[in-house]
Amino acid sequence: MIELEQVGFDYGGGALFGDVSLSLPAGSFHFLTGPSGSGKTTFLKLCYGALNPTKGRILAFGDDVAAATRDDMATLRRRIGVVHQDCRFLDHLPVADNIALPLTVSGRDLAQEQQNLTDLLGWVGLSERADAYPAELSGGERQRAALARAVILSPDVIIADEPTGNIDWDMSQRLLRLLVDLNSMGKTVLIASHDMSLIRAAKSEVQARVLRISNKQVQLAGADL
Amino acid sequence: MRRFFGLLSGDARSDRVVPPSGTTSHLTLFVAAAMGFLAVFALALAMTADRVADRWSDAQSQSATLRISGDAEQREARTAAVLDILGETPGIASSRPLTAEEQAALLAPWLGDDLPLGDLPLPQLIEVIAERPGYDTDALQQRLNDEVPGAVLDDHSGWRAPIVDAARGLRRLGVISLLLITGTMAATVTLAARATLAANAQVIEVLRLVGAEDRFVAGAFVRRLTVRALVGSGAGMVLGVLAVLLLPPGGETQGFLTEIGFGGLGWLAPLAVPVVTAVVAFVATGVAARQKLAEFS
């Protein structure tokens, strides 16, 4: 699904990653851990094509991401749903419109997708908040809305960057269960998190693997949880 | 062209993703209106100058005046001789001596109506109308010199040429003004597009992250600024046409300044102003959007 072949990345001030080779197979569930500033967000950006590696290559669905045209990249982004740490909403649009944004930009008929949107709002527990604006949402609501937006096009891969970073434990568990549900539907899930308690809690829910960033390498952290 | 009209027909979805208008958009509307207003005046100036140049270079070039001097008997004899010569000259459609009343009318603006012109030794004037392509002026003057002393041919070229040159110069100035207005509009819209795109960098980033193609993102901004330029220019055009209509009429005193305006189908020409403005805005915004979007992954 997503493969990294001897990938290196240099910010200009030195190498952040040296020689990373790994694969995220279809239907897998991975956590990415590492200390603050270790490059978790950068690694995720490499995976969804927001950054290009300075060395090696990244294959997404079999295609070299660096060789993708801008339109190819737009198509790739529709197959990889991303939940950003800061959610990245359009503040002038209500929640429902923000969640439907991937439908809008891909030219889908919103009238036909209305039921899907309603179902999705219910799934993330935001049915009553559909007309609210992003600034009116709590941290947990924002993260769930961001997750709904990430999955509305039913992407093959879901990438989440510290999705539980600003929410309480109960909400973290709720969000984790949504991600596990998606994985059980066959979606590949990659979550960057420094929250080890969340990772341990996931053990009872899903067969997840942990990738750890250390010494400019991204390595599998031992056995399955 | 299909893309242009497709863009103007609108896409409410892409419109909504761009935040409501800011100051830049309102300024674009104002500048487009001002440019539309000025463009109508430049167009009126150019078209009026064109009409004047054509009229003086065409209609007046077909007429000439023969002036016959001498005492009364000499004038009579020479007039008859000149009319004979003109009748034999190829390229002359008609010729006739002006009546005393017509000559008095020509002098009235300078000498008044009550002067006893019959007491003055005025030359006899003969109006000559040429065919197309006309007659050989030099050959006719030479024959008149040989056969009718005191007969002078004036084909009006001496005073007509500077007027025609001036009118053509004004026409050029009008066209140059239109080009400058178009260029200024393009520059203004480009700056407005850059400012709007820069102000909405986060919106563009989000749209790209959720899978928007460049044409979707650019379309939303291009449409907004193009429609704004079209509306502003249209309003300016209407005001410009009204201002031209309200210019005081010249009455019987015809002159360039009292003729400024449009004639006949020329009144349709201002309709091109908002259309050209919209096309310029469409192209300028499109180029600016493509350049800006290249900065986003």
Description:
The complex is a heterodimer of chains A (225) and B (297). Chain A has 225 residues and is an alpha/beta fold. Chain A has one domain (2-220): P-loop containing nucleotide triphosphate hydrolases (Rossmann fold, 3-Layer(aba) Sandwich), CATH 3.40.50. Chain A is built from 8 helices and 10 strands. In chain A, the strands form 2 sheets. Chain A has a 6-stranded mixed sheet with strand order 6-7-8-3-9-10, sandwiched between helices. Chain A has a 4-stranded antiparallel sheet with strand order 2-1-4-5, with no helix packed on it. Chain A is globular, with a radius of gyration of 17 Å. Chain B has 297 residues and is α+β, with helices and mostly antiparallel strands. Chain B has 2 domains: 2-57 and 161-293, no CATH class; 70-149, no CATH class. Chain B is built from 11 helices and 4 strands. In chain B, strands 2-3-1-4 form a 4-stranded antiparallel sheet, with helices on one face. Chain B is rod-shaped. The two termini of chain B are 29 Å apart.
How do you describe this structure in short?
Helix content of chain A is 33%, strand content 25%.
